[in-house]
Design goal:
Length: 122
């Protein structure tokens, strides 16, 4: 299994906050149903509103699950067999033709691979 980076403190706190505020939101219907008086009813509604805003705000941070997935995808990006072959055989690299058209094709292929890597990171 690939080695992953530890999650920053902000990500961990965002995860914990989303769990806590999510549990408050999940219990809200029951608390509204059993609220004994109007002030309690409005208190529960205020807690629900605060929790929903907090969950919305915290969802903007990258969660640890998303960060873990990004780390795994970065570890899975391996060079192609063609790249490995020419990296290991420097003699063959020196024998390749360096015409302008081949350089352009190589640049386009590299740009395409970089675009694919960036799209996987998102």
């Amino acid at each position: 299994m690939p080695e992953t980076k530890p999650h920053p403190l902000r990500t961990r706190l965002a995860d914990i906050g989303m769990v806590i505020f999510g549990m408050i939101m999940a219990v809200t219907p029951l608390a509204l149903w059993v609220a004994p008086t109007k002030p309690w009813f409005y208190l529960v509604l205020k807690l629900f509103a605060i929790s929903s805003v907090a969950v919305w705000y915290l969802s903007g941070f990258e969660t640890s699950a998303a960060q873990h997935h990004k780390n795994l995808m970065a570890a899975r990006l391996k060079p192609s067999a063609f790249e490995k072959y020419f990296k290991n055989n420097r003699f063959l690299v020196s024998l390749r033709s360096h015409s302008k058209a081949k350089k352009q094709r190589a640049e386009r292929a590299k740009k395409h691979r970089d675009d694919i890597r960036r799209s996987r990171d998102d």
